[in-house]
Design a protein that fits this description.
Blueprint lengths: L1 E4 L1 E3 L4 H10 L6 E3 L13 H8 L3 E5 L8 E5 H9 L17 E4 L29 H7 L4 E3 L26 E5 L30 E7 L1
Parallel strand pairs: 1-9, 2-3
Antiparallel strand pairs: 4-5, 6-7, 8-9
């Protein structure tokens, strides 16, 4: 694979950003380092999550593609697992990777949490999602909260509705492997793993170009 770094920007001009990264260009990802500086959500921690969601059931999975490893668990118990993974009973039930809570969609029921963050300033004027009827915005889902211990993995996938996605990391660090749409033929329907490439099984992956970024 040809590996490209992701550019890091700040003090972005919204019009220039839209023209360069959304309206045209090769579909290049970018990290904007000052996108969350006014977010209340940037200060969320486990104490906050326990208070707001203590008995909320989460659907967790040891792998997005291992349905047998999926189960329901209360938020408090899951956070106990994240904080004390080695000694927690769930440790013995893991598959190849830790249990990951990647389906939490709380913003319809807990609408006040939408005030804890804003659409990033560099796309606010060009955010078509904001122009939708409120019922349509609810149907499309205002966003996810994803939680997990070290080494959780999101399998290679394409986001819903093929939309541009923005992602903010509140705690810890997440490594992204990102491919432009014209690289799809090299990815075997998402079964290839760019983090641990198996060129014997997926030889076309050698010809792919991947953007790699650590977001903290």
């Amino acid at each position: 694979m040809q590996i490209k770094d992701v550019r890091r920007l700040k003090d972005v001009d919204p019009d220039n950003f839209c023209q360069e990264f959304l309206d045209s260009g090769p579909g290049e990802p970018v990290i904007v380092t000052d996108a969350m500086k006014h977010w209340e959500a940037a200060h969320w921690d486990f104490t906050f999550l326990r208070k707001r969601f203590e008995d909320k059931l989460l659907n967790i999975a040891s792998s997005m593609k291992e349905a047998k490893r999926t189960r329901w668990i209360k938020m408090n118990e899951y956070l106990d697992y994240v904080e004390n993974r080695e000694s927690h009973p769930l440790r013995k039930l893991e598959g190849r990777t830790p249990f990951y809570a990647y389906t939490l969609k709380p913003f319809t029921k807990y609408s006040d949490l939408l005030n804890h963050f804003t659409t990033p300033y560099f796309i606010e004027k060009n955010d078509l999602y904001a122009t939708l009827d409120p019922s349509m915005r609810t149907a499309m889902n205002p966003g996810w909260i994803m939680l997990g211990p070290e080494n959780t993995v999101s399998a290679l996938h394409q986001d819903f509705f093929s939309t541009h996605t923005w992602f903010g990391q509140i705690c810890g660090e997440k490594r992204f492997h990102l491919f432009a749409p014209d690289q799809s033929d090299y990815l075997y329907g998402g079964h290839a793993d760019p983090a641990n490439p198996d060129y014997d099984r997926f030889p076309k992956l050698k010809d792919a170009t991947v953007y790699v970024a650590d977001v903290g």
